[in-house]
Structures are given as structure tokens and as C-alpha cells.
Design goal:
Length: 143
């Protein structure tokens, strides 16, 4: 509905809009029946992001089952999946021995990935990926 406020006319949709682009214009009719239409305004609603995932890249899992997330590589490569095309930031948080550090991910021809810049020592590492898009939406993978 359109309402008149102190600063002019205000449009508020009667229901929440789904993600997507919407084109709006205003038509004004005066008491004599004359009409005038505004130029159009395109509004993009972007309120969601996919939940990203991180996993050892193909060939990096050297454990007994090949899917147990055990590797003997000291600088393993990880693939990041379910990354929306409009992200403006992708980071990987690595927790080890009570310390968490955050690193930028890399986008290549084959998608998003992460590899530590220095060799890791033996131990358990917990990784998560965080994405942010241009609308300010943030989403984080489960660890």
C-alpha cells in the first residue's frame, strides 16, 4: 500500500518480497485526470546465502577409509562448496590447540579453495568457512 507521510508518499509491500529484482514506477493522477509516470527504479532483494561447506580436496584424504578426514599432507588443499556467485568475502577459520586463525580463501577456475601457507604439525584441526555477500548477508559452515 501507498501512504502519505510528512516527507511524501511511502510505498510498503503488503507481504515480504522473495529474493529477486523488482521494477517499480509511480503514476500520478491529478484532479483533472492528467497523468504522469516516473522513471522506473529497479530494486534487488538479496536476503539469503547458501550454507557453505568445506572438505578435503580429492586425493588429500589419506586415511584408511578415504573419507575419514585424515591426511598425511602437511599443507592439505580444501575445497569450498555452495558458495553463491555474489559473495564479496570468503574466509576460512582454522582452530588448533586452542587458537583460531582466519585466512582468505582463493577463487580459481575450479572454484573456491584453501590451503595453509605453512606446513601443519600433527594434530586435530577444525575448519569452518564464512561467506559475506554485497547485501551484508553472512553465512557460516558447520565445523
Amino acid at each position: 500500500p501507498v501512504t502519505k507521510g510528512d516527507d511524501g508518499w511511502i510505498f510498503s509491500p503488503s507481504a515480504a518480497w522473495s529474493d529477486g529484482s523488482y521494477t517499480l514506477s509511480v503514476t500520478v493522477v491529478d484532479g483533472a485526470g492528467n497523468t504522469q509516470q516516473s522513471s522506473s527504479l529497479t530494486v534487488t532483494v538479496d536476503s539469503t546465502l547458501k550454507v557453505p561447506e568445506i572438505a578435503l580436496a580429492a586425493g588429500e584424504d589419506t586415511g584408511t577409509s578415504g573419507s575419514d578426514n585424515v591426511t598425511n599432507h602437511t599443507q592439505p588443499k580444501f575445497t569450498l562448496q555452495h558458495i553463491d556467485a555474489d559473495v564479496t568475502g570468503v574466509t576460512v577459520s582454522v582452530a588448533h590447540n586452542g587458537t583460531t586463525d582466519t585466512y582468505p580463501a582463493t577463487k580459481g577456475d575450479d572454484g573456491w579453495s584453501f590451503s595453509p601457507s605453512a606446513a601443519w604439525s600433527d594434530g586435530n584441526y577444525t575448519l569452518s568457512v564464512t561467506v559475506v555477500d554485497g547485501a551484508g548477508n553472512t553465512q557460516q559452515s558447520s565445523s
